[in-house]
Structure formats: C-alpha cells, structure tokens
Amino acid sequence: MKKKLILESGDVFHGEGFGANFETSGEVVFNTGMTGYQELISDPSYCGQIVCMTYPLIGNYGINRDDYESIEPAIKGLIVKELCDYPSNFRNQLTLDEFFQKKKLSGISGVDTRRLTRVLRSKGVVKGKIVPADANENEVIEYLRTTDFPTNQVESVSTKTAYASPGRGLKVVLVDFGSKLGILRELTQRDCDVTVVSQNITAEEILLINPDGVMLSNGPGDPEDVKGASELINGLLGKVPIFGICLGHQLIGLACGAKTFKLKFGHRGGNHPVLDLKTNKVAITSQNHGYAVDQESLKNTDLEETHIALNDRTNEGLKHKIHPCFSVQYHPEASPGPEDANYLFDEFIGLMEGFKNEEPRIESQDYA
Questions:
Q1: Percent of the chain beyond pLDDT 90?
Q2: How far apart are CA 243 and CA 237, in angstroms?
Q3: What InterPro entries has UniProt attached to this entry (predicted)?
Q4: DSSP state, 149?
Q5: Ramachandran region, residue 244 (left: φ > 0; alpha: ψ -120 to 50; beta: rest)
Q6: CB-CB contact of 96 with 62 (8 Å)
Q7: Which residue segments constitute the domains of the chain, with CATH numbers given?
Q8: Which residues are annotated as a binding site for L-glutamine?
Q9: Is the per-residue pLDDT at 28 higher than 70?
Q10: Where is the binding site, in residues?
Q11: How confident is the model at residue 359 (pLDDT cuts 50, 70, 90)?
Q12: Mean pLDDT, to the nearest integer, of 298-308?
C-alpha cells in the first residue's frame, strides 16, 4: 500500500506502508542506533512520536519475547529505509510488519531517511503524519500547523496501580514517569526490593513506604508538563537518597531551581559520547531525550554539573551539593546500547547503604 509522510514544514516523503493500515500523526524524530529497534518501539519515552531510523535496514533480526521495554508500545509510528521481510535470528518470533499489525501500529518504508534526517537536523523536530498516497497534502499540512498535540504523555504511560518486584536487598521506590523495564531489571539484579509507583504519588506516600532510596525514571514529553513533580522531589530531598534518569534528571533540575529547554532535534541513539567532568573519562551512552537542563540556570542552585555531552556540550549529569541526590541525562540501563554507564546503579546502591548507615558519602562519591 502506497503511503507518504507529510511534515508541517511542507516536506513530503513517499514510501510503502507496513503494519496497520491507518493514518497516524506525531512529532517526527530520528534515532541513530544501528540496532535495538524492538526496545525503541516499546520505550515509553517515545510516546506520541514517529521515529525515523537512520540505519538503512530495519527488522533483520525480527521481534522476540525478551527485548521489550514495556508491555504496550506508546510510539505513534516508524519510518525506515528498507524493511526486512525475512528476519534471520534464532530468537525471531515475528517480523516487524507482523508485530505492527498485531499492535495496530503504522509504519512507512522506502523513505529516503538520509534526506529526512537532514531536514530534521536543519529545521528541527516537526510534526508529521503518515497518510495514504492520495491524501491532500495541503489539508494535512494545515492540520499539522493548526493542531496542538496532547501534552499529557507521562500521565498516559505511567502505571495506574503500584506493584512490587520483591527482593531481599535494599528497598527502592521507582517512580514511573514512563519507565523502561531495563531500569527495573538493573535494580532487581542487585536484589533490590522494588515498589513501582505512579507519577502522581506524593512525597508523604513514598515516605510511608520507608524506602532506602527513590529512583526517578525516564519518560516522554516536556518536563515542565509533569505537574507535582517538583513538590514530590523537594519533599524527598534530604530524607532519602535519589537517583534520576533522563526525565527524572530534568525534573530534579526543575525542582532545584534550574530551567530546561527543548533541543533542536534531540539526542536519540546508542552512540553518544559523554564526558565525566571529575575523572575526564568518556563513556559511550544510550540516549533518548528532546529536552535538556539549561547550564546557565544552574549557577544559583545547589546543583553541580557532573557530565556533559561531547557532541553539543549540553548537560548530561547533576549532583546535589548538600543532599544525597544525583542524576544523569543518558540511560545507564542501556536497552538498547552500550553498558559503559551501568555501574551507576552500583553507585546508587552505595549511596543508599551509606545514607542508611548515616555516612555522608554524597560529597566523596565518584559517579563517573
């Protein structure tokens, strides 16, 4: 079935549809990963977005039961250059096309993804819509330019009911702003007793659980749209160790008086170099975010910058100067991507143990 992708900028890309046969619209972004499309598709942080894969061949190892990052995908659509119809992998259970049909997702292949990526890098992230080939382009462009897309992405992907992943180690509350299962896996592998809670929980409700630490997860959308997060974080600071990842990192920044801004085209992929300002070491990281903490706004806060992105020098890590709280913009749990930063979960364990034993380790702890 012939389809086309229309951007609000007026650019049009023709291709072949796959998956469910219906129109879909969202913010169009690009991902530079060579692998990991299954984790990407099931990552809640892509809620409301149509993702362009810059690597030309997608679907070559199929879909399997083990690589999901959520039960139900929140992505709006996928754009690829070449779709593989016959995957070759011993774990393969479904083709990408079959998976998209079952999950009622829409995609388009045969697109000049190099040109599309250059458009997004030049003009910035724009809204787009995948439509039939005979759709009226002017009408679609007008729709995209005059329609405001939903801003409640976190609310739509966060768990509605708290649940537990039992362990015999430290007790961690994971606040689900759109959490990947990779975060839960890393905590349970360290025998943590994890309670996953909704994004609308209060600090008082968390403290009643009496956790050893609180993890603030990744998630989609503008951090300024997450109502109540600043009150939650300020109610926990100094009372329990906190570790924030991606959106959780941005929310810590906002709660402590910093500001965030929207990046022109975001960081999405598994090959982003990050510099640790303390050790001067570089880690190759997995990233997926469209917003960043404004470094200038950190000057009058109790936050210290710990990491920066080497591609554009934007902020990638923070540490509170007084309280046991730190965060990173990238994904130490990877899924997909390199595991250079996986040790940060061990640092979180050490921070919780030190706080539990009333040892002020936050000042001397090395997070890089």
A1: 96
A2: 11
A3: Anth_synth/Amidotransfase, CarbamoylP_synth_ssu, CarbamoylP_synth_ssu_N, CarbP_synth_ssu_N_sf, Class_I_gatase-like, CPSase_GATase1, GATASE
A4: P
A5: beta
A6: yes
A7: 2-149 (3.50.30.20), 154-356 (3.40.50.880)
A8: 45, 219, 221, 247, 250, 288, 290-291
A9: yes
A10: 45, 219, 221, 247, 250, 288, 290-291
A11: low
A12: 97
**Tokens encoding 185:** 């896996």
Question: Per the structure block, which two tokens stand in for 79?
Answer: 């754009």
Q: Is 331 a catalytic residue?
A: yes
Phi, psi of 115 (to 5 degrees): -65, -40
Query: Which listed residue (267, 272, 307, 331) is catalytic?
Result: 331
The β-bridge partners of 167 are none
Angle at 336 between CA 333 and CA 341, to 5 degrees: 35
Residue 246 among the catalytic residues: yes
Is-contact 97 66, C-beta < 8 A?
no
Q: Is 20 exposed, middle or buried (0-12, 13-18, 19+ CB in 10 A)?
A: middle
User: Would you state the pLDDT for residue 368?
Assistant: 39
User: Which one from 39, 186, 316, 333 is the annotated catalytic residue?
Assistant: 333
pTM for this model (two decimals): 0.95
Six-digit token pair at 123?
A: 């003009």
pLDDT of residue 169: 97
Q: Which residue out of 246, 307, 325, 347 is catalytically annotated? A: 246
